Amino acid sequence: MNQKSFDAIVIGAGSVGLPIAYYLTLEGLKVLVLDSESSAGQGQNKAAIGGARATHSDPAKITLCLQSLEFFSTFEKKTGISLGWVPGGYCFPVYREAEEQTLTCIIPTQKSYGLEIDWVGPERIKELVPGINENGLRGGTFSPGDGQVSPLKVAAAFWKESKNRGCEYRFSEPVTGLIKKAGRIAGVKTARGIYHSNVVVNAAGAAGTEIGRMAGIEIPVIPDSHEGGISAPMERFFDPLIVDLRPGPEAKTKNFYFGQNDRGQVIFCYTPITPIVGTNRENLSEFMPIIARRLIDLIPRLKNMLIRRTWRGLYPMTPDGTIILDEVREVRGFYLAVGMCGQGFMLGPGVGSNMASFIVHGKPIIPQEVWSSVSFYRDFYAGRKEALK
Ligand SMILES: Cc1cc2nc3c(=O)[nH]c(=O)nc-3n(C[C@H](O)[C@H](O)[C@H](O)COP(=O)(O)OP(=O)(O)OC[C@H]3O[C@@H](n4cnc5c(N)ncnc54)[C@H](O)[C@@H]3O)c2cc1C
Predict the structure, then answer these.
(1) DSSP letter string over 152-215?
(2) Is the distance from the beta carbon of residue 128 to the nearest atom of ligand 1 less than 6 Å?
(3) Which pLDDT score is estimated for 339?
(4) E strand or H helix at 254
(5) Is 48 in the pocket of ligand 1 (CB under 6 A)?
(6) Distance from the CA of 141 to the center of ligand 1, in angstroms?
(7) Is the CB of 346 within 6 Å of ligand 1?
(8) Which residues, other chains included, contact 213 with Cβ-Cβ below 8 Å and sequence gap of 6+?
(9) For range 286-307, the mean pLDDT
(10) Using alpha carbons only, what angle is made at residue 348 by residues 345 and 349, rounded to the nearest 5 degrees?
(11) pLDDT grade, residue 275 (50/70/90)?
(12) Residue 344 CA, ligand 1 centroid: distance in Å
């Protein structure tokens, strides 16, 4: 039975656990990462289509993702390691007044937090997305600093860079229990060992609630499922990641989004109108017919696209759609980086550097008033109560 001590233990080598471990090693800490899967980034991280944007309405997501984008866009220049970065921005084409209002009214907030974004006319949208359906096109938003990255290349890079700095990884070794002493965290248990530390980070994604219960706390992370797909490579004809906010004509889908990755493959996903709550990851037969119609309606030339494969993965959702980054007051030293919803991959580096600063220096990098909005102690149902008034 293993018995070792570490400065910090991270549960989960996923979209946020890997960068947290990397930034903790940069702070000089001796770190252990445990994961049930057999290698890095094999949880929901590899289900992500790699969209990376700071184009959000929530200040915490804007500021954290701006830091992630800085990391994604400069990493290759600094290290020579490719992350599959496609610097094409994000484009939200608009066909209806409702979406025009939704998007234009958040631009001032987005700009106030440093996001480069503007409303552009239909001619500019047609340049950005050649072959887009022009019928009723009103214009849209374009944020040139956003882009696309490969989730598996990013996971491999964080794993390798942190390992080079002394981080220890134990794969195929799920955490089965937490050790507490006098109201503090003292370590974790697995079937193969007991690992001691005064700092344990719950970065277990869709299993975040399960890990919380091991410490006697209830974390509201409820997974729901989403499908994605990818085509065969084709000559690049558009650079931005495209988001169509309209509901689909078949009354099953909200927005859908897609991009062309660094190998020319079109990678795509949609949001179901009724969330499919649970952890089932078997593909649904309705996904391809629905998304194919939506893609071809928006860009008719995609009708000849060859699909390689589809998959279904999980969004670790919270009741208010905002992430949780905090220390648990009832169990000091037990940190939460969970509830990443549909943006955990793009949030990864920003969450990693801020959590490391919070753990080591007691304060995040982003402004404190923004950080408090991701507290575990907020009212997760405040928006809903407001709506019922
Ligand atoms: C189809 C689809 C498309 C998406 N597209 C995007 C996108 O374009 N951009 C974006 O930002 N996000 C996207 N997402 C969302 C993104 O994938 C998630 O938000 C993100 O991966 C969650 O990160 P995480 O680190 O919380 O979880 P994960 O990456 O799942 O990491 C959690 C890790 O914890 C491990 N674990 C669980 N239980 C235990 C235990 N008991 N002991 C040890 N380890 C444990 C798991 O094995 C896993 O490796 C998409 C999701 C789907 C399904």
Answers:
(1) HHHHHHHHHHHHHTT-EEE-S--EEEEEEETTEEEEEEESSEEEE-S-EEE--GGGHHHHHHHT
(2) no
(3) 98
(4) strand 253-260
(5) yes
(6) 28
(7) yes
(8) none
(9) 95
(10) 135
(11) very high
(12) 7
Residue 299 in tokens: 């860009």
Q: Which atom of ligand 1 is nearest to the CA of 50?
A: 8
Ligand 1 pocket, 35 CB below 6 A?
yes
Q: Of all protein residues, whose CA lies closest to atom 35 belonging to ligand 1? A: 12
Question: Beta strands 8-11 and 200-202: pairing type?
Answer: parallel
> 10 Å Cβ neighbour count for 96?
12
C-beta 49 within 6 A of ligand 1:
yes
- SS3 (DSSP) at 237: coil
Q: Whose CA is nearest to atom 8 of ligand 1?
A: 51
Amino acid in position 14: G
Q: Is the pLDDT reported for residue 285 higher than 90?
A: no
Closest CA relative to residue 347, chosen from 314, 380, 374: 374
Residue 389 has pLDDT above 60, yes or no: no
Write the DSSP symbol of residue 43: T
Give 183-205 pLDDT, tens digit per residue.
999 999 999 999 999 999 999 99
The span from the CA of 88 to the CA of 314, in Å, is 26
Question: How large is the C-alpha radius of gyration of the chain?
Answer: 21
Whether 66 lines ligand 1, by a CB cut-off of 6 Å, is: no
> Residue 348's pLDDT is what?
98
- Which atom of ligand 1 is least distant from the CA of 34? 43
Is 355 within 8 Å of 23 (Cβ atoms)? yes
The pair phi, psi for residue 136, each rounded to 5°, is 85, 5
Average of per-residue pLDDT values in the chain: 96
Name which residue sits closest to atom 2 of ligand 1, judged by CA.
Answer: 48
pLDDT of residue 376: 98
Burial of 136 (C-beta count, 10 Å sphere; 0-12/13-18/19+): exposed
- Specify the ligand 1 atom closest to the Cα of 225: 53
Give whole-number Cα distances, 304 to 13, 23, 39, 226, 285, in Å.
Answer: 38, 44, 36, 24, 20
Residue 70 carries which side chain, given as an amino acid letter? E
Q: Are 34 and 297 in contact (CB under 8 A)?
A: no
Closest to 55 measured CA to CA, from 110, 124, 114: 110
pTM for this model (two decimals): 0.97
Assigned token pair, 236: 């690049």
